[in-house]
Amino acid sequence: MESDQQIIDWILDTQERERGFRALVKAYSRRIYWHVRKMVILHEDADDLVQEIFVKIWQNLDKFRGDSKLYTWIYRITTNETLSFLQRKRRHMTESLDDNSFLLDSVNQSIQQGDISGTEIELVLQKALLTLTDKQRQIFQMKYFEHLTFEEISDITGTTVGGLKATYHTAMKKVEEFVANG
Amino acid sequence: MSAPFQSPEDSYFQQLESKLNRIPTWQSPAMHVADDYFDQLEANVLHKIQKPQARLLPLWGRWVAAAVVLVIAGVYFFNPFSSPSWQDFSNEDLVVYLEDHQSGVPWEEMTSQVEVRNLVPLHEISDQDVENYEEIYGI
């Protein structure tokens, strides 16, 4: 697999841009997919959204100047598109801007289809995560499951480190309470 | 050597994470995907970027096109430059007008009791309007 620097060099060279894009897809498809999948739950939704994200990356490659890290730039597009997708789907499926019931339905559907499996406690955690807002859930996921630092998440989301810590703290508390109370 | 300074919030978060890391239940359930999915994903993405993007006009072109459409629509519906034609008048208006006109009454003395639709003064009716009316109605 090519290094980020090699991919950047190819992207910045108009003759090699497509080669750089292919290498980018190979290098990042799994990471982007799993980030998106954990947010949208259903594989079909994740598949559609990931393809849209890569097309958007391709369309905006000429705007990438190499002044930020490649994964930061890719993640920024990924997180924004994921949040937009969830807002659109929520508007379509529910009446409330805070309603995550459609995601809970997706979890139940995925369990029935065998696309999600886990112990009872793990499934309680998944449901606990769905009590968070999209942004809280995304930040929690990036910090707790993907092990990004607050500084990295700040670069991606544009939120200050202090703001992220506050959001993370709130998310942790909500999840703790849900898990404790069932 | 003293330990490096930790701000209260840093140590709080470290303690919180340490507490959570000791809880074995904090694993999310496994999500599954087919083994060859990522190869297929790569192929689908590369296929999509190679399809020609349907874009007839650049962004500035779309603004110009929209402005042109608005101008055409405005001229069509409001038509500030046209003079009123006989189609703007009701039959009653035109009959009165023509009776006056044919009787040789000067424009200035023509009856003003007839209100033409769109409040066009009678003296602005053109001769062409009259001819059109005469042709259509056989007057």
Describe this protein with a few key phrases.
heterodimer; A: 182 residues; Rna Polymerase Sigma Factor, Chain: A; Arc Repressor Mutant, subunit A; 2 domains; 9 helices; 76% helix; 1% strand; B: 139 residues; mainly alpha
* CATH hierarchy, class of the largest domain in chain A: Mainly Alpha
Number of H- or I-type helical stretches of chain B: 5
The value of Rg of chain A in angstroms is 17 Å
Number of helices of chain A: 9
Q: How many individual β-strands of chain B?
A: 1
Integer count of domains of chain A:
2
The poorly predicted ranges of chain A are none
Compute the CA-based radius of gyration of chain B.
Answer: 40 Å
CATH architecture of the largest domain in chain A: Orthogonal Bundle
The computed structural class of chain B is mainly alpha
Biggest β-sheet of chain B: count, sense, barrel? none
- Apparent shape of chain B: elongated
The biggest beta sheet of chain A reads: none
Structure summarized in a few sentences:
The complex is a heterodimer of chains A (182) and B (139). By secondary structure, chain A is mainly alpha-helical.
Topology of helices and strands:
The complex is a heterodimer of chains A (182) and B (139).
Chain A: H1 4-12, H2 17-40, H3 43-59, H4 70-93, H5 101-113, E1 116-117, H6 120-129, H7 134-145, H8 150-157, H9 161-181
Helix pairs in contact in A: 1-2, 2-3, 2-4, 3-4, 4-8, 6-9, 7-9
Chain B: H1 8-21, E1 30-31, H2 37-50, H3 59-78, H4 91-102, H5 127-137
Explain this structure to me?
- The complex is a heterodimer of chains A (182) and B (139).
- Chain A is mainly α and 182 residues long.
- Chain A folds into 2 domains: 1-97, Orthogonal Bundle (Rna Polymerase Sigma Factor, Chain: A); 118-182, Arc Repressor Mutant, subunit A, CATH 1.10.10.
- Helices cover 76% and strands 1% of the residues of chain A.
- Chain A is globular and about 55 Å long.
- Chain B is mainly α.
- Chain B has a domain at 86-137.
- Chain B has helices at residues 8-21, 37-50, 59-78, 91-102, 127-137; one strand at 30-31.
- Chain B is elongated and about 95 Å long.
- The termini of chain B are far apart.
- Chain A binds chain B through residues 18, 21-22, 25-26, 29-30, 33-34, 37-38, 43, 47, 50-51, 54-55, 58-59, 110, 114-119, 121-126, 129, 144-145, 165, 168-169, 172, 176, 179, and chain B through 9, 13, 16, 20, 25-33, 37-38, 41-42, 44-46, 48-49, 53.
- Strand 1 (116-117) of chain A pairs antiparallel with strand 1 of chain B, so a sheet runs across the interface.
